[in-house]
Crp/Fnr family transcriptional regulator (Wenzhouxiangella limi), 237 residues
Amino acid sequence: MNSKPESNQLLALLPQESKDRIFPQLQEVTLAQGENVYVDGSDMDYVYFPVDCLISLVYVRRSGRSAEISVLGREGIVGIAISIGEDRTPSRAAVQIPGMAYRLSTPVFRRQVGSDPSFRWLMLSYSRSLIAQMAQTASCNRHHTLDQQLCRWLLLSMDRLPSQQLTLTDKLLAEMLGVAQDDIVDVAKRLHDAGIIRYEAGTIMVLDRGGLEKFCCECYSFIMEESDRLAISADPL
């Protein structure tokens, strides 16, 4: 693996003193597609800083049906609830695009939050950004068309990955958006026919990002504004 911790954009925002304390304690891990980093109700033994993988936080209903509440990649951290004292997660964290991440044990993470003001502020700022994404995702899923929802999901995924190509199945996409698989196929074909994506079995390649943004609703720009605020307010000291 040739990546450095700074390949995760959240870790890159830390001041050098914080990096010097945290980076030696990070562990590189490879995450496989379909792997559950957390299962709802399970203990969170580590936090994860993705580098080139994509992880979805998924809420699973009692009926067994599921829907994604946020998508995380190199811009953030998986397990942020540990920073406010949570030990278990109410949602599942599932790897959608395989790749590598850095992980930090829960005790070390908590000590850093408690002792390092810059680190603590960054984690709190990211929590705000993640909550905004969750709220906007819920609104989008309720009020906007599936075409717009898929465009939002693709744009957010592209921002969180080093590649413009996604390798995942129609079934997986349908589960993330909480819709029927046939509906995902219909929307993907429309975007393919418009020349915005290249859609083949198990692969989506974005060809026209500008076109994707035009098809999308305002939810994507709102989420990105929150991400930009995070970078600006990374260190108040």
